[in-house]
Amino acid sequence: MDPQAFIRLSIDSLGLRFNGGGLNTEKYAIHRLSLPCVGEIRLRGFPVQTTLVPLISSPEVIPDTQSNASSFYLEESDLKALLAPGCFYNPHACLEIAVFTGRKESHCGVGIKRQQIGIFRMQVGPEWGEGKPVILFNGWIGIGKNKQEIGKRGAELHVRVKLDPDPRYVFQFEDVTTLSPQIVQLRGSIKQPIFSCKFDKDRVSHVDPLSNYWSGSSESSDLETERRERKGWKVKIHDLSGSAVAAAFITTPFVPSTGCDWVAKSNPGAWLIIRPDACRPDSWQPWGKLKAWRERGLRDSICFQFRLFSEAQEGGEHLMPEIHINAEKGGEFYIDEEKQLKSVASTASPIPSPQSSGDFGALSPIIGGFVMSCRVQGEGKRSKPLVQLAMRHVTCVEDAAMFMALAAAVDLSIEACRPFRRKMKRGFRHSV
């Protein structure tokens, strides 16, 4: 499998101090004591990211270089767009960090006015596209009105901006999951078949070697049962030789919770992701568990919680934070530990298994960061999941297959969490 080139742009080691006069004489001191400093990190073509900027009271203190404030992942097309000439008023793309006092919110009905302290700007240059590790900036720099006046009182921002190559494998299901599609690897305009996906709904063959892991009738469920519960769904991922290398199946049925017609958080549906046991032929072992439910609101969302079973970690498992996907429009399920777990302390890196490990260094400052993303469509739409995997977390084809099974479970959960009394459109019947 050949990866695609991706670049990780990381912004870390943020800190704010005031040059000269001390904190108490600075005009922003009252704001510093009562409200946090907030940084808005902007890069053309990407959503704005927000982070807290700690105040540094002592001139000798250097902010923590291990604290990641923000990351952007750039593929080749993103770099081309950033390096292309812009409009007359904005000819060059820039990375911007705007620092404010306060936040865009209100307290007790009274609006809190933000005040901009200053902006750090860095122009996108040719070195961004070289694919090499490079530190673009590391140190203190003046921001605000007095940034050009050496020795004058003014705000200074500490920041480190770094580029690292972060290649990924990109896969796509060629059709909706329920139609048992082929899964191809994408590299430019080239599509290379890697896996096939076999979907079954409550149909178990007595000769199926995986039948010990799931229960179900050999007869398909009728419409009346489908209106009350969704169970027995399963997906097997096969390699090019036809061998099953990963699977996902419903362990807890998707059923309406008491007093409503949808799957609620109090009683979520659940999938088990399994993989071949490297020590015992024709045996399987759990790899992860995915829970899903529906949350009602102005715009309904499908919520996911993934738990990784890891023999390499103490405790044997790792729980990921919740991810919400728009039920109508779809969205992205991802495993990105810097994005999800900024507030959680890091632990020691797990020992990687030499073959089909499936352990992606949960909470590891060395192996952490982006692991996987899966983009799916909303309910009732022809979703063809698009999956990206960080190359450093894939040691063999079997590792990639487990993420494909997880992606299939995410996609099928969108339909499994549909309200049970919703009428289907005339002339349309989903294959599940």
Q: Residue ranges: pLDDT <50 for 5 or more in a row?
A: 21-33, 147-152, 215-222, 342-358, 360-367, 424-432
Count the domains: 2
Pattern of helices and strands: EHEEEHEEEEEEEEEHEEEEEEEEHEEH
Q: In angstroms, what separates the terminal alpha carbons?
A: 32 Å
Give the helix level as a range of percent: 10-25%
In total, the number of strands is: 23
By oligomeric state, this entry counts as: single chain
Integer average pLDDT: 79
Largest sheet: 13 strands, antiparallel
Descriptive overview:
- The chain has 432 residues and is mainly beta.
- The chain folds into two domains: 8-163, Immunoglobulin-like; 168-416, no CATH class.
- The protein has five helices and 23 strands.
- Strands 11, 12, 13, 14, 15, 16, 17, 18, 19, 20, 21, 22 and 23 form a 13-stranded antiparallel beta sheet that branches.
- The radius of gyration is 25 Å and the shape is globular.
- Mean pLDDT is 79; it is low at 21-33, 147-152, 215-222, 342-358, 360-367 and 424-432.
Brief digest:
This protein has helices spanning 29-34, 76-83, 223-228, 337-340, 397-416, and strands at residues 6-19, 37-43, 49-52, 68-75, 94-101, 106-107, 110-111, 115-123, 134-143, 154-165, 168-173, 182-187, 190-201, 233-238, 244-252, 269-276, 284-295, 301-309, 317-319, 323-326, 331-336, 370-376, 386-390. It has 432 residues and is mainly β.
Task: Spell out the blueprint of helices and strands.
Layout: E1 6-19, H1 29-34, E2 37-43, E3 49-52, E4 68-75, H2 76-83, E5 94-101, E6 106-107, E7 110-111, E8 115-123, E9 134-143, E10 154-165, E11 168-173, E12 182-187, E13 190-201, H3 223-228, E14 233-238, E15 244-252, E16 269-276, E17 284-295, E18 301-309, E19 317-319, E20 323-326, E21 331-336, H4 337-340, E22 370-376, E23 386-390, H5 397-416
Antiparallel strand pairs: 1-4, 1-10, 2-3, 2-5, 5-8, 6-7, 9-10, 11-12, 11-23, 12-13, 13-14, 14-15, 15-16, 16-17, 17-18, 18-19, 18-20, 21-22, 22-23
